[in-house]
Structures are given as C-alpha cells and as structure tokens.
C-alpha cells in the first residue's frame, strides 16, 4: 500500500527524548516499511526514517527558538499533505481533529489516531461538528468521555521487538519514568517507596508548565528524606539498564491515561508494573502476571511484597505476544484496507 504518515511537528520522529506520539509514529512507520509498504512520513526535517521523509519544517518546533506561532507550521503541513494526497491509498494523521474539515472534502481515505485525553469538555462540541471523521482510539477506556466520535477501531501501541530487552542487572530499586506533573503523581511514588523501604529512581522530564509543581511539591518532598534519586530525562538507549535494574515500575497516576507507553517499555525489560486503576491500565496490565493493579498507596505498598510471585520472563513473553510494533502495524493495516475497500473517505465500521 501507499501510506502517508502525518506526524506532529513539535518533536522529531523519533523524538530525541520525551515524546510519546512521535515515538509511536516512528515505530509504526518503520514497521510498515519493513513489511514492504511504500510509506511517506510528513514530519520535521530532523526526523530519521527508512520511509520517504517529507520535511515540512527544518527541525522540531520544541527545538526551534525562533518559533512564536506554532500553528503556522501546522497549516503548512496540512497544505503539503493536501497537495500530495492523490499519491497515496490512505492518509494516516496523528494531529487530533485538525485534518477533519479539509480532508473530509477529499477523495482519499483518511484516518486519525487520537493520542491524547478525550475528557476535556471543549472536545464534545468539536467532535459533534465532525460526526464522520474516521478516528482510531489507543485503548477502549480512552473512548469513554467521547463515545459519539466515529471510531473505526482501537489499536494498542507497540514497540519494536528488539528495541528494549532485559539486562543482566540485579533489581535493587523502584522506578518512576516519564514526566513530572500532577496527573502522573510522582509524589505518590515517593511516599510508596519510602513506606516500603526501597530506594526510588525518578527518570523524568519537567515541562515548563509543570515547573512550579516540581519546585513546590516534588523538590521539598525529596528533601524531606533520603532514598530518592532524581535521574532526569533519559533516552531509549538508557532505558534497558534503568528499567532492568528496577524491582518494579511505579505508575501511581491520577488521570484517565489513554495508554501509558512506559508500561510496555517496562514489560519489554521484564519489569513488573504497579499501577493505579485508571484509564487504560486494566487493558495493559494483567493483574498478578505482568504486575499489580492497585487502588491506593496502601495497595501499592502491599503489592511490593508480592513481586517475587511475578516471573520477569513471563512479563517479557507477554510483551512479545501483545505489544510489539509488528502487531500494531498489522492492526493498522487491517483498518487501512477496510477504508480503501470502501473507496470513500468516510465510513462507519461496526466493531
């Protein structure tokens, strides 16, 4: 198939550090190429891919200090795709609702994967105006706040099978990975680790919007006692050792997580996950097999006492069965084919 993957311009594909959406776009694009498909990636010029790269902007907007209006490059991206749309069998966007108005008028099938939270009140009227926009959810739980959208499928994320692997490291600490922000609740992770008497390593970025939270909540909490190491933001090459050295990944979230890529990153390294029962967690974690699903800090502390019941080999084997990029690509290809066989851009599939 001739497939266009249209990524956000905020980060490179793949991102240099944090960037879940762009990371998934990269995994999907490379796997589609490996499967023999003709793929064009519309992304920033500092992206790296085996597909054809249409570099809409010279570098990721996050790394471009001259950018003041981030919507201007987005408009340019949409126009670039419109001009080339007839070259493809299907257009796959990762831009939320932005493509809908323009590409609903086009004769090429298109679909958008929704990567973010859908419980924001302003989204309901937007999607009410876009009833025929083909969208894909990344978990069933993601759909709950916005059931009226035209979902044509759910595709769980996947990682390249050989991207992360268990390392021969004795697990000695608990891990927190991703982003320091109120909804991820690193404060809970600190309290859980201290109550359990296990060191905690936090490998996470701090966005500007979360700087005040970090300085007023997390830094003072770390300073209250020992046992917590702030590692900072890490890249993919650092993750295998970081996760393999952890007894468990703590994910004490306080929001409806649409997917949670860090959970399958941990699983790829054979590391169990202890996660709060929110959002996609029950769809990702097999309770008692790949980790434990808990309701509160007390439950998380209790779960830590049962980690010896979890086989790290089974955790990795479960990843291989459920969360590889090959499985993700095959799921998307099924949807692409259904859209192209319908020979029209708007389609309501029954699933």
From TrEMBL:
<feature type="domain" description="Glycosyl transferase family 1">
    <location>
        <begin position="170"/>
        <end position="307"/>
    </location>
</feature>
<dbReference type="Pfam" id="PF13439">
    <property type="entry name" value="Glyco_transf_4"/>
</dbReference>
<dbReference type="InterPro" id="IPR028098">
    <property type="entry name" value="Glyco_trans_4-like_N"/>
</dbReference>
<dbReference type="Pfam" id="PF00534">
    <property type="entry name" value="Glycos_transf_1"/>
</dbReference>
<feature type="domain" description="Glycosyltransferase subfamily 4-like N-terminal">
    <location>
        <begin position="18"/>
        <end position="123"/>
    </location>
</feature>
<protein>
    <submittedName>
        <fullName>Glycosyltransferase family 4 protein</fullName>
    </submittedName>
</protein>
<dbReference type="InterPro" id="IPR001296">
    <property type="entry name" value="Glyco_trans_1"/>
</dbReference>
<dbReference type="GO" id="GO:0016757">
    <property type="term" value="F:glycosyltransferase activity"/>
</dbReference>
């Amino acid at each position: 198939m001739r497939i266009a993957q249209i990524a956000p311009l905020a980060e490179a594909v793949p991102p240099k550090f944090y960037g879940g959406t762009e990371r998934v776009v990269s995994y999907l694009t490379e796997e589609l190429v490996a499967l023999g498909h003709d793929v064009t990636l519309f992304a920033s010029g500092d992206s790296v891919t085996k597909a054809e790269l249409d570099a809409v902007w010279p570098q990721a907007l996050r790394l471009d200090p001259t950018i003041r209006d981030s919507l201007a490059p987005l408009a340019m991206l949409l126009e670039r795709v419109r001009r080339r749309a007839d070259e493809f069998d299907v257009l796959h966007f990762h831009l939320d609702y932005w493509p809908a108005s323009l590409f609903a008028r086009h004769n090429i099938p298109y679909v958008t994967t929704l990567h973010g939270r859908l419980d924001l009140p302003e989204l309901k009227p937007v999607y009410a105006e876009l009833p025929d926009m083909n969208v894909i959810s990344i978990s069933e739980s993601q759909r709950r706040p916005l059931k009226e959208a035209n979902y044509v499928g759910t595709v769980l994320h996947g990682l390249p099978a050989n991207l992360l692997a268990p390392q021969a490291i004795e697990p000695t600490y608990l891990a927190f990975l991703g982003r320091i922000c109120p909804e991820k609740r690193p404060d809970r992770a600190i309290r859980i680790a201290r109550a359990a008497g296990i060191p905690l390593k936090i490998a996470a970025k701090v966005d500007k919007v979360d700087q005040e939270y970090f300085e007023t909540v997390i830094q003072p909490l770390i300073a209250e006692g020992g046992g917590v190491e702030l590692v900072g933001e890490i890249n993919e090459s650092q993750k295998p050792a970081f996760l393999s050295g952890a007894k468990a990944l703590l994910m004490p979230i306080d929001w409806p997580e649409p997917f949670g890529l860090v959970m399958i990153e941990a699983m790829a390294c054979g590391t169990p996950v202890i996660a709060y029962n929110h959002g996609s967690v029950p769809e990702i974690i097999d309770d008692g097999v790949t980790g434990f699903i808990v309701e509160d800090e007390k439950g998380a502390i209790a779960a830590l006492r049962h980690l010896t019941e979890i086989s790290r080999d089974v955790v990795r084997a479960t990843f291989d069965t459920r969360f590889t990029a090959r499985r993700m690509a095959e799921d998307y290809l099924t949807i692409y084919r259904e859209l192209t066989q319908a020979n029209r851009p708007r389609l309501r599939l029954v699933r």
